[in-house]
Amino acid sequence: MEDSNIGTHHELPSKWHQTFYTLWLGCFVTGMGYSMTMPFISLFINELGNFSRFELNLYSGMAFAATFISQAIVSPYWGSLADRKGRKLMCMRASGVMACTIFITGLSVNVWMIIGMRFLQGAFSGYINNSIALMAGETPHSKSGWVMSAMTTAGVTGNLIGPLLGGALSGAWGYRIPFFITGGLMFGVFIATSFLVKEKFTPIKKENMKPMQALMGQIDNRQLIVVMFITTMLVQSSVMSINPIVSLYVKEMMHDTGNIAFVAGIVAATPGLGNLVAASKVGHTMDRIGPKKVLTTGLIVAAVLFIPMTLTNSPWMLAFWRFLLGFANAALMPAAQTILTLEVPTEAFGRIFSYNQSFQAAGSVLGALLGSTISGLFSYSAVFAITGCTLLLDFLLVYLTQHRAKTIN
């Protein structure tokens, strides 16, 4: 994880490495905790009532979407507060509340309690997003690509390990145990963030803050910023479209026999493994050739990889194609975040990244509801076909925006 070029301490603030590793670990635990629980939440819900296939798909989609609906609504407020009070406080708020809500989710006695806790969790979430914003403000631009990739890799690495650990725990002791463990781990993240993270930030009074319109006026290519928001939404939608139904899809492929939870965990984890393998190389490539070229290449490759996923009837082939998808995913969200970091004034990081989180949350809602609705009305494979089309459309949007900017210049 350590980059040899980043060892020049004179370019970095004091305690930078301690802050970086603490936040990296916090993002890792956040990603792991999420993926320990969410791929199996549909199976958990199924234990709480006698639901039809459509009802189960619908409730699973609602459980996924609840967090992101509240997140999309509340994120701009937290972003404004982050620009006034600092990102460290936002990381503490997110990890502390998540520790409580995730633990209580494990105590749920019906599906509405799960949905309610997920909604509350979303209203106070944002650990990874604020960690990235904090590091963006503390890191020289010449290293932004690597640092954004490294921070994203933290969550991805957690997402890789989480399904395997969650599948093993769920198979052995039931679906509630991963929620209890995740709640405890997030409390540890809260403690570590409180004492080990150092942020060079001077609080700003509300009346002294520049309005967002004035800050956006300082950006040369405002259209590119909006397109990055849309890209974040569509990329997140592509990631989330299969998550609510992945365990049910695997269950159908395996004809309801064998260790479904474990196999579903592997299928859920494979994009993370591919992402982990490619992330460091992609980060260095962004610093060398620029994030815009990396983003367009990643989008077209990802769109193409969804084609074979629509045709497979084996969970192992699905896992293989999703592993390759992880290589492309390593070039998507980090590239969009790096573009925002390089194009946006530092004093607007909190608000810009919070808007980006709102679009990411909207993408999670779109993906979760799209995946559960399409699979309920048509088939699971149809989810992949539509997801691939959305990424292709985003590629065209990004390409045309960049081409227009070159024409103007």
TrEMBL record:
A GO-annotated cellular component: plasma membrane
Domain of life: Bacteria
Domain Major facilitator superfamily (MFS) profile: residue ranges: 19-406
GO molecular function term, any single one: transmembrane transporter activity
A Pfam family this chain is assigned to: MFS_4
TM annotation in the entry: 20-44, 56-74, 94-115, 145-165, 177-197, 224-248, 260-282, 294-312, 318-340, 377-400
Key word Protein biosynthesis present: no
Membrane topology per record: Multi-pass membrane protein
Keyword annotations of the record: Cell membrane, Membrane, Transmembrane, Transmembrane helix, Transport
Keyword Hydrolase: no
Name of protein: MFS transporter
Subcellular location: Cell membrane
InterPro entries, sorted: MFS, MFS_4, MFS_dom, MFS_trans_sf
